[in-house]
Amino acid sequence: MSDWRVIYVKSRTEKKVAERLSSKGVICYCPLIYRRRNWSDRIKMVQEPLFSSYVFVQADPSNELDILQTPGVVRFLYWLKRPAIVRDDEIDQIRHFLSEFDHTNIVKRSFTTDDIVRIKSGPLMDYSGEVKGVHNHKMKVFLHELSCVIEVDLRRNIIEKA
Fold first, then answer.
1. Are residues 83 and 120 in the same domain?
2. Less Cβ crowding at N or C end of the chain, within 10 Å?
3. 38 and 14 in a common domain
């Protein structure tokens, strides 16, 4: 069996590239999650890639050129001048993780003390505050307008940097 490799694709073409590669007979995986998107007239759940601009493919030297010639593919990903290899068990963990839990938000973010943040939803929507501490999945935010400290669960994705 071939190794799983990572390809870098043009922005917002992950699903289309995965379809094109599959139609060529290349085994590929583009992990998708549902996210809630707000428009001015409606709210809709849309499927988006878990990893922006990346698709996993099973590649060997015989099909590398075919993969690179697929519209939307930019290049293979390298780490320390070697092809980035993803083990089968890591792909299985991603699949299990996505099938086991309902994920609408998986976000990379880091908040530090004294960051100014804004609340995106809920009864305190659009209030801004100052981060006073972050521990595990919780953040303490001082809201100047209300002169109080609230504790926010970071897993709910209701906070963003202002």
1. no
2. N
3. yes
Non-local CB neighbours of 62 within 8 Å, separated by 6+ positions = none
How high is the pLDDT of residue 154?
75
Asked whether residue 92 falls in the same domain as residue 144, the answer is no
Q: What is the CATH number of the domain that holds 154?
A: 2.30.30.30
pLDDT in tens, 7-29: 999 999 999 999 999 999 999 99
125 has a pLDDT exceeding 90: no
Whole-prediction pTM value? 0.65
Residue 91, pLDDT > 80, answer yes
